[in-house]
Design a protein that fits this description.
GMP Synthetase, Chain A, domain 3, BolA/IbaG_stress_morph_reg, DNA-binding, BolA-like_sf, globular, DNA-binding transcriptional regulator BolA
Length: 118
């Protein structure tokens, strides 16, 4: 959990987080057990008020540049202002399970081409 802890620490230090949930979703993907490669981040901060989604994402990418350049393969971001969070009923969308396989697998390549893969 050292990568997850680093993500949590960096985001807490960089943002005035009202809600911060960092979930390791690696178990949903085709990676070895105990991997820390796929994460879902839900972050609620007043700093996101009036900010476009792309700017919010850029801010996260900047803070987590080291992790994204190394061990983190995928990062699902759900970033809200406090008002937006209230409107969701305090829930972020669920992440889909991985379809498995790889781009070299003909079945997975076909699914990806049809928009079914992750």
């Amino acid at each position: 959990m050292k990568i997850q802890n680093a993500i949590e620490t960096k985001l807490n230090e960089a943002f005035e987080a009202r809600v911060l949930q960092v979930e390791n979703e690696s178990h949903k993907h085709s990676v070895p057990p105990n991997s820390e490669t796929h994460f879902k981040v839900t972050l609620v901060s007043p700093e996101f008020e009036g900010q476009m989604k792309v700017r919010r994402h850029q801010a996260i990418y900047k803070v987590l540049a080291e992790e994204l350049a190394g061990p983190v393969h995928a990062l699902a971001l759900h970033l809200y202002s406090p008002e937006e969070w209230e409107a969701t009923g305090h829930t972020a969308p669920e992440s889909p399970n991985c379809m498995g396989g790889s781009k070299k697998d003909p079945v997975m390549a076909a699914r990806t081409a049809q928009g079914e893969g992750s």
